[in-house]
Amino acid sequence: MAYSFLDFLNLLGALGLFLFGMKGMSDGIQKFAGEKLRSIIGVMTRNRFMGIMTGLIITGIIQSSSATTVMVVGFVNAGLLSLAESIAVIMGANIGTTVTAWLISFLGFSFSISIIAIPVIGIGFPMLFSKKDKLKSFGEFLIGFALLFIGLDFLKNAVPDFSAQARAFEFVKSISNHGILSTLMFVLIGTVVTMIVQSSSAAMALTLIMCNNGWIGFEAGAAFVLGENIGTTITANLAALMGNVYAKRAALAHTFFNVIGVLWMLLLFSPFLELINLGMASINAGSPFYDTRAMVIGLCVFHTAFNSINTLFLVGFVNSLEKLVIKVIPSKGEIDEQFRLEYIGSNIVNTSEINIVEAKKEVIIFAKRIRKMAGYIPTLLGETDEQEFLDLANKIKKHEDIADRMELEIADFLVRISREKVSQEVSRDLRGMLRMISNLEKIADIVYKMSITIQRKNADKAWFTQKQRDNLKQLMDTLNIAFENMITNLELENGKASMQKAIEIESNLNSLRDKIRDEHFISIEKGEYNIKSGLYYNTLYSACEKIGDHIFNINEATTGINVE
Q1: At 250, is the pLDDT very low, low, confident or very high (cuts 50, 70, 90)?
Q2: Distance in angstroms (rounded) separating the CA atoms of residues 537 and 532
């Protein structure tokens, strides 16, 4: 019977339902775990063996190595994991993904999963209407789990029967009898299929179905599995495209790890399959070369054994793998005059808690850039070389432009997060960060206006006395202390920032401003300097006090004050 276009659409629909279920299950469990998931990963990756166990457990729970590796790339991008730690987690994820194949093998072929899938949806659906975020997320997980296996049920009937399609069957046979060339061909097909569907689990499901129906042999199925291990790395690499250099390295390490594994397995391919055959025969489980049911189990054994042995083999070379990817993707260093958000790229991880971490890291970089910008003002005041003065003034202008863009892009990212269903804690963090970046941008505006004031002062030849210069330096030194304290508060974990030092610094700054202002008026009355010089002086010391106010506002936001 001819395979019609409608049959092809049924295949796409079944595959789409399978992937939709997997995504729903993965997203649901990530939301359910939320902050705890991030904490667990942070605690459990202190050494490479714990990192491997972390990757294995998390992938076994969320049922997607792609989701785990993309999450790991997001963690590296946000500075939560080092490159070496991320490599260990990715190794564990490769083992964890084999759980999906075993579930499909035991649940997907033994009986109609729809018998329990529909009741599972019945349990999960009411949870979607719960006011409790955790319960709602768990409902999403249950529905995703059910849809995944319903999709698999449809997939079994939608995959074309090659044995009934003469041309297709002949093609499969024609590429199955050329030894290593056939193996390489099936590896390539497995890679391409996995890259297209963006899920090694979906590709594995297709492979198991074809083996269960007897359309391809054990060797071809095992070669498909090797290809799937290469194809699954494309997801993390795509996610890392908009990430920083560390995210790109983590994604590339995943690719190197899987490709190295496939290469050594190809050298031992036939003996390895024969070993599995002997092992299964010794426990009367049948031969995967001849028995289709045994073939499905044999593929699961191959999948698990290959990924486990590859991890054990390469775990001792984590440092070497780290050096290799650093060499391939070297750091370009700090390009100070080029604007680029370092942690926020595309929405790498669909988890608000992780997005919040990335945004927080970006706010810290924003704050450090503004502190550096403000640090140019004392130099500008004392610069006597005309060209150096102009270069520094232009640098301040460029920083002000960058500040405008940083505020806009970070705010846009925060607003996009806020459109999702987020917890009250995340919502409070979002409001706090919006307040922070608004105040940082205002500081940049003030610093830029100070540079304009200094330029006009020089053009008018309105020189400051040594006392005026000393007072302004004292104010700016105090501001620098305020900046340092503000950044310290920003870098602390939620709930650990303190206002005590900020209040003390703000009080000192206000007292110093009052003292300078009183002395200024007295000096004007005594005629110690002209009115024009006094106006520029007044503008500059008042600007310093305004910067202090904005720094104080940012400190309040870090502690949760005035963000409700």
Answers
A1: confident
A2: 9
Q: How many CB atoms lie within 10 A of CB 393?
A: 19
The rounded distance, in Å, linking the Cα atoms of 469 and 377 is 12
Q: What is the pLDDT of residues 492-544, one digit of tens each?
A: 876 677 888 999 999 999 999 899 988 888 887 777 777 788 889 899 999 99
Q: What is the spatial distance between Cα 550 and Cα 240, in angstroms, rounded to a whole number? A: 35
The DSSP code for 198 is: T
Tokens at 360, concatenated: 């927080």
Residue 8's φ and ψ, nearest 5 degrees, are -65, -40
Average pLDDT value for the chain = 80
Residue 199: strand, helix, or coil: coil
Q: What is the pTM of this model?
A: 0.57
Q: Where in the chain is the domain with CATH 1.20.58.220?
A: 352-558
The count of residues in the chain is: 564
- pLDDT tens per residue across span 351-387: 556 677 778 888 998 999 999 999 999 999 888 888 8
Place of tokens 């029967």: 161
Question: Mean of the pLDDT values across residues 183-204?
Answer: 80
Q: Determine the pLDDT at residue 259.
A: 93
Report the distance separating Cα 61 and Cα 115, nearest Å.
22
Neighbours of 462 (CB within 10 A): 17
Place of tokens 């974990």: 493
SS3 string of 399-422?
A: HHHHHHHHHHHHHHHHHHHHCCCC
Q: Which residues contact 357 (CB under 8 A, 6 or more apart)?
A: 38, 78, 80
DSSP string, 233-261: HHHHHHHHTTS-HHHHHHHHHHHHHHHHH
Rounded Cα distance, 51 and 93, in Å: 10
- 335 pLDDT band, cuts 50/70/90, is very low
pLDDT-derived band at 77 (thresholds 50, 70, 90) equals: low
Q: In three state form, how does the secondary structure of 462-523 look?
A: CCCCHHHHHHHHHHHHHHHHHHHHHHHHHHCCCCCCCCHHHHHHHHHHHHHHHHHHHHHHHH
Report d(CA 290, CA 269) in Å as an integer. 18
∠ Cα 426 432 434 (to 5°): 105
Please tell me the distance from the alpha carbon of residue 124 to that of residue 146, in angstroms, as a whole number: 9
Of 288, 299, 121, nearest to 205 by C-alpha is: 299
Range of weakest confidence among 6-15, 150-159, 490-499: 150-159
Q: Are 465 and 482 in contact (CB under 8 A)?
A: no
CATH number of the structural domain 352-558: 1.20.58.220
Q: What is the CA radius of gyration of the chain?
A: 31
Q: Which residues, including other chains, have CB under 8 Å from residue 114's CB and lie 6 or more apart?
A: 149, 150, 153
